[in-house]
Amino acid sequence: METLQTLERGIHALELIARHQGQLTVAQLAELLEINRTIAYRITRTLTHLGYIKTNENLGLELSSKIQDLYHCYEMTIPSNSQQILNSLSNRTQASASLVIAEGSDCVVVKTASTGSSYLRINYQLGSRHPIGTAAAGIAIATTYPPQPEEKEEIRLARQLGYGYSEGRLQSGAVGLFMPIPERHMAIGIVSIGEVNKEAVLEALNDAVRALN
């Protein structure tokens, strides 16, 4: 696929600056991007002029608060009451709750809520990404699209049941149960360590889906 190289480099630079917040100099950024320093300076000057980055006292590059404007626009695509609903779902099920969306061929965790120490024990956190059709969330999201000729049996089963379920798929000992939100290509659900009361979780998920809609 043909891409605009300058734009691609600029976005990649933003990603690197975010990942190394305050720790990268322009010279180090040039090395990571595999470009000469002159081009790196042009990219950072442009991003600074637009207000998306700044330089700290140690000459490290940092994101500026204007990045929040982009995030705010993105958040408008997510149900406004989703965090409140996830908090309630997590408390009700005593498990980590997540809202996951489709993004290309992947599903991505965009909102989370946890109770107690579950957050530390379950590696399914904000920004986690895995292929659609994999694990409970990916299976649930797959059902929001039309059936495919060679669809996995677990996706066909999820269409019949109305939810995706998996055990130990992304993390050993973790159980996932997610319900699709078809019109948004999203899924909401829980991830827990060990057995779950499926009937109670499904009741809580049904309430959560109705509240999101």
TrEMBL record:
<dbReference type="InterPro" id="IPR050707">
    <property type="entry name" value="HTH_MetabolicPath_Reg"/>
</dbReference>
<dbReference type="Pfam" id="PF09339">
    <property type="entry name" value="HTH_IclR"/>
</dbReference>
<keyword id="KW-0805">Transcription regulation</keyword>
<dbReference type="InterPro" id="IPR029016">
    <property type="entry name" value="GAF-like_dom_sf"/>
</dbReference>
<protein>
    <submittedName>
        <fullName>IclR helix-turn-helix domain protein</fullName>
    </submittedName>
</protein>
<feature type="domain" description="HTH iclR-type">
    <location>
        <begin position="4"/>
        <end position="61"/>
    </location>
</feature>
<dbReference type="InterPro" id="IPR005471">
    <property type="entry name" value="Tscrpt_reg_IclR_N"/>
</dbReference>
<dbReference type="InterPro" id="IPR036388">
    <property type="entry name" value="WH-like_DNA-bd_sf"/>
</dbReference>
<keyword id="KW-0804">Transcription</keyword>
<dbReference type="InterPro" id="IPR036390">
    <property type="entry name" value="WH_DNA-bd_sf"/>
</dbReference>
